[in-house]
Amino acid sequence: MKILVIEDEEALAELTDKALRKEGFIVETAFDYGSAEEKLAVYAYDCILLDIMLPGGNGLDLLRKLKERGDRTNVIITSAKDSIDDKVTGLGFGADDYLAKPFHIAELVARIRSVARRSTNRGDFAFRYGNVALEPDSGRVTVAGREIQLLKKEFDILEYFMQRPGHIIDKTVLAEAVWGDHIDQADDFQFVYAQMKNLRRKLTAAGADIGIKSVYGFGYKLV
């Protein structure tokens, strides 16, 4: 699961980033309104942690614009302003939850998993496609009920595709989503090809009736 932390207090943002990475999330950060708006225009996220008071703008305006263009990304407002008006406005604009600062990381993680679970409309929080089921909370993948073993990046790649079945995914977008901001420092995409090859092999060997197909000149698609 990929998370964008929008927080102007850099120390808190770094602490949150480190803690969420330990929980297995992919995390990116934005410290002001402008950089947050740029990231949201280019990249896709599963959950946004949104502070209200930001340099260069108000987090609620960012939320309103996000929802006006039909973006269904889960949003949790994290703000020191624990007022009824802020909660009502934020939830009215489409936020999924509101967590007042200071907060415990354990509670934040629970809230993230809760909004993700609600968005799937499944109590067991599993993505299902064909005879494959992927459980983000437990890290399990099963094919026709039998568990298969995937490496962390193989799991992340499969999770990304199972949230977007039938969509063509550009290799650059995939690499950025799974490996994060530092993908720009890579010289080529051989590491993506290697992980994809291993994942395909494991799915085929397990008897999966789904597969990740190469779309020449565009990228990949889960079919």
The gist of it:
By secondary structure, this protein is an alpha/beta fold. It has helices at residues 10-22, 33-42, 59-68, 84-93, 105-120, 152-162, 171-179, 190-205; strands spanning 2-6, 26-30, 47-50, 53-54, 57-58, 74-79, 97-100, 127-129, 132-135, 140-143, 146-148, 168-169, 212-215, 219-222.
What gyration radius follows from the Cα positions, in whole Å?
18 Å
Oligomer: single chain
What is the CATH architecture assignment of the largest domain? 3-Layer(aba) Sandwich
Strand content: 15-25%
Average pLDDT metric: 85
The count of DSSP E runs of length 2 or more, i.e. the number of strands, is 14
Q: How helical, in percent, are the residues? A: 40-55%
Question: What does the model show?
Answer:
By secondary structure, the protein is of the alpha/beta class. The protein has 2 domains: 2-120, Rossmann fold; 127-222, Winged helix-like DNA-binding domain superfamily/Winged helix DNA-binding domain (Arc Repressor Mutant, subunit A, Orthogonal Bundle). 43% of the residues lie in helices and 23% in strands. The protein has 8 helices and 14 strands. It has a 5-stranded parallel sheet with strand order 2-1-3-6-7, sandwiched between helices. The longest helix is centred in the middle third of the chain and has 16 residues, at 105-120. The radius of gyration is 18 Å and the shape is elongated. 30% of the residues are buried. The model has no long low-confidence stretch (mean pLDDT 85).
